[in-house]
């Protein structure tokens, strides 16, 4: 996918599930996105600091630093220095996916995807 200036859009996929990241990477690459991956919030923040991304596809419930912690860190930055966040969650043992996503929305996530989601929902969220 390209932006208005014709440059490829870039996405960072942040999820602790290797298979899920692989599927998302393949889908986004086929839609002409530049894609990088991170397995947790710490790695995501490092990559966000090193490279600018158009969009961060961010799992909310992960071990180590989770997506909510990433959002809290990004909230400290000026609006112009924050990537657009598409939050995703399927829930966990202590919280539902819907609740996790509502928390993410309150912390600045622009789009919400409840796992499992369709390819159509993914493409719409990435626009």
Describe this structure in words.
Residues 10-127 form the Response regulatory domain. Pfam families: Response_reg (PF00072). This is Response regulator receiver domain-containing protein. With 127 residues, the protein is an alpha/beta fold. It has a single domain, classed as Rossmann fold, CATH 3.40.50.2300. The protein has helices at 18-30, 41-50, 67-75, 97-106, 119-126; strands spanning 10-14, 34-38, 55-59, 84-89, 111-114. A five-stranded parallel beta sheet has the order 2-1-3-4-5, sandwiched between helices. β1 (10-14), α1 and β2 form a beta-alpha-beta unit. α2 (41-50) packs parallel to α3 (67-75). The longest helix is centred in the N-terminal third of the chain and has 13 residues, at 18-30. The model has no long low-confidence stretch (mean pLDDT 92).
How many helical stretches? Answer: 5
Distance between the termini: 9 Å
Helix content estimate? 25-40%
Mass-distribution shape: globular
Overall pLDDT: 92
Strand content: 15-25%
SSE topology string: EHEHEHEHEH
Kindly provide the radius of gyration, computed on alpha-carbon positions and rounded to a whole number of angstroms: 13 Å
Assembly type of the shown chains?
single chain
Kindly state the number of beta strands: 5
Look at the helices and sheets and give the structural class.
alpha/beta
List the uncertain runs.
none
CATH homologous superfamily classification:
Response regulator
Pfam family, one: Response_reg
Domain Response regulatory: 10-127
Keywords: Phosphoprotein, Transcription, Transcription regulation
Protein name: Response regulator receiver domain-containing protein
């Amino acid at each position: 996918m390209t932006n208005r200036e014709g440059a490829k859009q870039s996405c960072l996929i942040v999820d602790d599930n290797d298979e899920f990241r692989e599927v998302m990477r393949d889908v986004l690459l086929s839609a002409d996105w530049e894609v990088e991956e991170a397995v947790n919030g710490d790695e995501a923040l490092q990559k966000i600091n090193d490279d600018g991304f158009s969009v961060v596809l961010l799992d909310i419930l992960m071990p180590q630093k989770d997506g909510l912690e990433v959002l809290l860190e990004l909230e400290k930055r000026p609006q112009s220095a924050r990537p657009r966040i598409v939050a995703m969650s399927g829930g966990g043992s202590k919280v539902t996916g819907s609740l996790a996503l509502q928390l993410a929305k309150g912390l600045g996530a622009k789009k919400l995807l409840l796992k499992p989601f369709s390819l159509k929902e993914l493409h719409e969220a990435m626009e």
